[in-house]
Task: inverse folding
């Protein structure tokens, strides 16, 4: 199961759908011993609701003695970012299964939303560690203040006077009539 899913609409258009953040609440089925079971809430990152429910049962069965056969999902809600236009620093705690064992990891990303940061994390884990979507488990996602950023590749982006060079600038004539076909010297594209 990849983190980016391609949907074919009317055999003409393919649309890439990224990850969404869902709040899934579930419990064990009521029984005579336990008429009001305890509710368990999780925030799950998944491409759709069906995968979110599946991941919920996967994690719940690891944490508590509950499974889909003797449990029920009470509610599934998608969580939306309140300030999705502001760039923030995100810290992600995760564990993943490699070819040699299970590893814990902390990574930082600079994105606008939590789900975009998690999507970048899945892509990064696939690129750097060849970790598949199913072998990566997101433990925690938190917004990190600029003063608390640990990783140098994110620290270099949060400097107050950050400037990006424009290395290859080609001077274009204002109009087509002002264009010269033969020029005596090569154009200077660096400043």
Result:
């Amino acid at each position: 199961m990849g983190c980016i899913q391609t949907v074919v609409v009317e055999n003409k258009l393919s649309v890439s759908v990224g990850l969404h953040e869902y709040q899934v609440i579930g419990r064990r089925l009521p029984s005579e011993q336990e008429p009001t079971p305890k509710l368990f809430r999780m925030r799950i990152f998944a491409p759709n609701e069906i995968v979110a429910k599946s991941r919920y049962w996967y994690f719940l069965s690891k944490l508590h003695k509950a499974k889909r056969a003797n449990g029920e999902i009470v509610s599934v809600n998608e969580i939306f970012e309140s300030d999705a236009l502001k760039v923030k620093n995100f810290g992600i705690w995760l564990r993943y299964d490699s070819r040699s064992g299970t590893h814990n990891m902390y990574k930082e990303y600079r994105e606008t939303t939590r789900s975009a940061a998690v999507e970048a994390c899945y892509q990064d884990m696939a690129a750097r560690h060849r970790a598949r979507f199913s072998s990566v488990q997101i433990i925690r996602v938190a917004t990190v203040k600029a003063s608390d950023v640990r990783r140098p590749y994110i620290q270099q982006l949060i400097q107050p006077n950050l400037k990006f060079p424009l290395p290859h600038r080609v001077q274009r004539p204002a109009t087509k009539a002002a264009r010269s076909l033969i020029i005596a010297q090569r154009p200077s594209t660096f400043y």
Notes: The beta strands are 5-9, 13-17, 20-28, 39-46, 71-79, 88-97, 102-111, 136-144. The mean pLDDT is 89. Helices lie at 49-63, 114-129, 152-155. The longest strand covers residues 88-97.
